[in-house]
Amino acid sequence: MAGGMSAECPEPGPGGPQGQSPGPGRQCPPPITPAPWSLPRWRAYVAAAVLCYINLLNYMNWFIIAGVLLDVQEVFQISDSHAGLLQTVFIGCLLLSAPVFGYLGDRYSRKTTMSFGILLWSGAGLSSSFISPRWSGLRPGVGCDDADWELALGPPNPPRGAAETQREGAAGGSRSSWCEDVRYLGKNWSFVWSTLGVTAMAFVTGALGFWAPKFLLEARVVHGLQPPCFQEPCSNPDSLIFGSLTIMTGVIGVILGAEAARRYKKVIPRAEPLICASSLLATAPCLYLALVLAPTTLLASYVFLGLGELLLSCNWAVVADILLSVVVPRCRGTAEALQITVGHILGDAGSPYLTGLISSVLRARRPDSYLQRFLSLQQSFLCCTFVIALGGGCFLLTALYLERDEARAWQPGTGTPDSKDVDSNDLERQGLLSGTAASTEEP
Predict the structure, then answer these.
(1) 77-103 pLDDT tens trace
(2) Using an 8 Å Cβ cutoff, are 383 and 175 in contact?
(3) What is the pLDDT of residue 175?
(4) Burial of 381 (0-12, 13-18, 19+ CB in 10 A)
(5) What is the pTM of this model?
(6) Crossing angle of helices 316-326/189-222, nearest 10°?
(7) Complete domains list, the chain, with CATH
């Protein structure tokens, strides 16, 4: 018997197939069991290696301007506000394609969609190498973020719609439209608040990634550890130091956050948003201390900056789990695309420009000196501490709705099994780990 279902066909409600009940004597359609698919262990390792390499190239692409920011400003004689605008324009081009690829990923082969995106990204990057450096940062992206790459390479595609063929979802319901998916996501408060929390994270990450190397260099000049640079090329050892610190804290933070969520989820159902909230609320004072201590001691500034980045990185894997747990499989691609779009538009698309704009406004009212340049950039960074605290509040609100939205996402008829059918919180994840797609039949 299929998954505890009764021998009689349940009558679908008004939202059921064609809004009609089966009538007397009609037999229930047999449950559709997805065809099994397997993932050899060696392919899993190769896929993980390729994904790490792709994400490395992705971050190199995003922050290459930050590494040569001083030279760019010297060559083109641009202010901090115009320098920050370079990153805004780049991310804006990236976001034009995010909703399109999310829509295609939910309805067609994800491998084909992502492969086309990678080719588009690579071709645009190659083309930008033959044009003026002024426009090299304007190449388009493919609308993909870290969580999306795992769908592109390595694992063989399971049968399309396999996650939707569970329980009543197998009874022939029509696929929802993009507008219906968006309306559903807009009413999913866990998704809404977690997206705003991710936006706050992206805001701070974008500002730090773009301006922190210059901020640290100017702090070094203020301390007399390095002479000012008045002619390019400008040597900035803090770009390498900050980049290495970001990589190290990023790797450790992602592992710590994922492990903490795995352990405490067994005890506290709302552990994931609570972990995100606490880490962001702890990041705010660390970032504040890193800024205010920079004129006094550069070492302490590095320590608190590294600690803040570590706490911030604890959330990246956890927020992906939150999205997967509260959104039905049929529109996860759309949900991911919307989260990318909102997070980048309101986050790191504007934070480099906003930080540079505040710095330029403050500098215009002060004497032109290296100390005043440093203080202007330092004070413009303070807005990040308030934004990251607001992000922590958004995750606290996520915790209020998490259990309710999880229950709704796993109700029969939503394309996912209920808790009586599986012990795992995610059928798709269980299929990936075991090497076979889960079946709807019980022995």
Answers:
(1) 777 777 777 777 777 766 777 677 767
(2) no
(3) 65
(4) buried
(5) 0.68
(6) 170
(7) 39-155+177-430 (1.20.1250)
